[in-house]
Amino acid sequence: xxxxxxxxxxxxxxIGVLINNARISKNxxxxxxxxxxxxxxxxxxxxxxxxxxxxxPEIELLSYFLSIPIEHFWTxxxxxxxxxxxxxxxxxxxxxxxNKVLAIQIRLKREEKSLDLSNMAEALQISEDEYLIxxxxxxxxxxxxxxxxxxxxxxxxxxxITTQGKIGQWNTDKVNSEAIRNLPPDIISFIINPSNEPxxxxxxxxxxLSAAKxxxxxxxxxxxxx
Length: 226
Prior knowledge:
Layout: H1 3-25, H2 30-37, H3 41-49, H4 56-66, H5 91-112, H6 117-124, H7 128-135, H8 143-152, H9 165-181, H10 185-192, H11 197-207, H12 211-225
Helix pairs in contact: 1-3, 2-3, 4-5, 6-7
């Protein structure tokens, strides 16, 4: 086994542990998660065992279904939070659309960097025909392959995470909520106080001004003060 193959195997096992932890923390069965992704329980077990790697759309669906921030799946931390149910959705259709959109995103990024199919195929150590099938959206990108593509395109895996639809909105809300929770308590109290909205809007407006305009405002305030 080559060094790259060993690293891939280790990475897959790490993702598998995180998937297993997320599922168990939400009291979900392998069968439920497999049904969500329209795969067999044994195929889902392969994800958890690190035998195979899931695709980004599959990880996005698991994140949405289990109500866990998607960033969890590329961290080193295990979780144990309360269960949060989501209403039923057409997950199969959502995944098909996401795989197609993902393929288009990758093609556009590749063309933007003036790379041809052979460049990408060589980076992934596959044939051009195999890569073309991926980029056409006919075969989903597993998470490890997508990371390799992102690296070759000088992007971050997070650049491909959806910001659209129910999953995108949910993930954005989770990220924003987490960011707010990490603020000092006095700032959180200030933010959630409705009477402070004018000050927050003023701060937003000031943050959009250029340094020159801010300097002019500061000079004007000094003239009034002194």
